[in-house]
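PROTEIN DESIGN WORKSHEET
SECTION A - STRUCTURE
LENGTH: 474
TOKENS:
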């Protein structure tokens, strides 16, 4: 872990504040938008369009399995883009990751369905989903580094919340667009309100995927105007760029990798339970084989969007709290609250619509409070030369442990509970206990310097140029 900062000299920012915040926010908004529209389609239409089965639960689980496959691709993307980001710089890498995500999302919008191309269509969907995960594996850490490495003293956690804010904004834009499309398309008389209309299932679902091309074009323009951060530039000028960042971070910073992974675990589980699983549970009919809440799609998504507004607000609120009281102290209390929240799911939901709304509001509020500080905490665990790789691996390996399996496990526990989600809540609480343990074993990072000049580990001399090594030694 980087050493505590003694008295860092003030720096003149190379990027204006507005440019940094907009670039970090807009990029993650687009990336999460792309990710969310797949998650929504995975619940609404993909089980029937790409995974035909006589058993609706089997089709849904198959769709979720592909959803989770992207999480497996994310650590691969973290290694690839982390290598580029720690070797070539943050700006170029962020442009490549955003472009990759945009192309994959657009292509999903033009894929044939199973009825048109058989299992070839399913295979292409899996391929595009893997590409989405691969791209997102490099997006988050780069956006977090753009924000935190350009942040003024004492406001690093606040600035780090802006890339995190992309998650609720992407959700609102993506699901809001689905709602608008569903409202504009004709619906059949007497149709089941929990199911999409025939027009939506036929072609309307493609529009959000195709629209991503417009958002990506805007994001690329914003990011092309960034200048590389002073922190990375100094590291490169000092000859401390690593030849193999992955090897360096695994050999010299493996404890931070493990702690960072488990610190993110509860966040990921909560995140995907409150978005993907809750949409399935909220829309399932009360008299279904696995009963749910029985809300219509439009009604429940509006309730979710209301909850996500709290996600956005409390993401920003968490930044100043983490700057004042520390990342570790703030997250310990929030994670303890998540443990309690998982144990009170059934009493809340049993209160009727008011209780369901309260369940969504509390869940998304805790989501904002736990997700916000991660934008600063994970980058602070690693030195500049391996920060992109280290923070990206921790963030994305946690996605496998938390997000890739969360919807799948949740559906299984939902069935095991005879339609009651109490076991799903217990699962969330158990994962939060693991995160709490990781936080208690970690150290506070609030006062570490991101511009440290640590000596290179043994064997890293080959990664430096001779002039830079000589300059550094002098």
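SECTION B - SEQUENCE
RESIDUE ASSIGNMENT:
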């Amino acid at each position: 872990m980087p050493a505590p900062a003694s008295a860092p000299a003030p720096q003149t920012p190379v990027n204006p504040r507005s440019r940094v915040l907009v670039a970090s926010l807009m990029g993650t908004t687009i990336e999460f938008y792309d990710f969310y529209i797949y998650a929504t389609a995975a619940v609404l239409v993909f089980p029937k369009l790409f995974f035909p089965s006589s058993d609706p639960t089997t089709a849904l689980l198959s769709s979720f399995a592909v959803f989770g496959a992207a999480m497996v691709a994310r650590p691969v993307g973290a290694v690839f883009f982390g290598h580029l980001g720690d070797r070539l710089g943050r700006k170029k890498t962020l442009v490549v990751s955003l472009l990759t995500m945009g192309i994959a999302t657009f292509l999903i919008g033009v894929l044939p369905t199973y009825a048109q191309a058989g299992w070839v269509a399913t295979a292409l969907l899996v391929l595009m989903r893997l590409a989405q995960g691969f791209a997102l594996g490099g997006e988050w850490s780069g956006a977090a580094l753009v924000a935190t490495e350009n942040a003024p003293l004492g406001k690093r956690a606040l600035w780090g919340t802006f890339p995190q804010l992309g998650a609720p904004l992407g959700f609102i834009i993506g699901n809001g667009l689905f709602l608008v499309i569903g409202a504009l398309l004709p619906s059949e008389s007497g149709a089941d309100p929990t199911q999409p209309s025939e027009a939506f299932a036929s072609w309307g679902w493609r529009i959000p995927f195709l629209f991503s091309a417009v958002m990506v074009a805007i994001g690329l323009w914003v990011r092309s105007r960034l200048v590389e951060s002073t922190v990375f530039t100094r590291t490169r000028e000092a000859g401390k760029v690593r030849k193999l960042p992955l090897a360096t971070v695994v050999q010299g910073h493996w404890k931070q990798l493990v702690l960072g992974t488990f610190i993110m675990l509860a966040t990921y589980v909560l995140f995907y339970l409150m978005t993907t699983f809750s949409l399935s549970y909220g829309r399932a009919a009360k008299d279904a084989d696995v009963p749910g809440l029985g809300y219509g799609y439009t009604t429940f998504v509006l309730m979710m969007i209301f909850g996500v507004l709290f996600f956005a607000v409390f993401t920003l609120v968490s930044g100043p709290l983490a700057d004042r009281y520390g990342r570790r102290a703030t997250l310990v209390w929030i994670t303890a609250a998540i443990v309690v929240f998982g144990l009170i799911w059934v009493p809340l939901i049993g209160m009727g619509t008011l209780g369901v709304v309260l369940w969504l509001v509390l869940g998304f509020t805790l989501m904002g409070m736990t997700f916000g500080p991660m934008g600063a905490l994970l980058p602070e665990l690693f030195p500049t030369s391996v920060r992109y790789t280290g923070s990206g691996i921790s963030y994305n390996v946690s996605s496998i442990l938390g997000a890739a399996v969360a919807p799948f496990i949740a559906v299984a526990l939902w069935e095991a509970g005879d339609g009651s989600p109490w076991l799903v809540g217990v699962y969330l609480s158990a994962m939060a206990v693991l995160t709490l343990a990781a936080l208690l074993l970690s150290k506070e990072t609030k006062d570490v310097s991101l511009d440290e000049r640590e000596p290179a580990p043994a064997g890293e001399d080959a990664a430096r140029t001779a002039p830079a090594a000589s300059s550094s030694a002098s």
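SECTION C - NOTES
DSSP finds 22 helices and no strands in the chain.
The CA atoms of residues 91 and 228 lie 6 Å apart.
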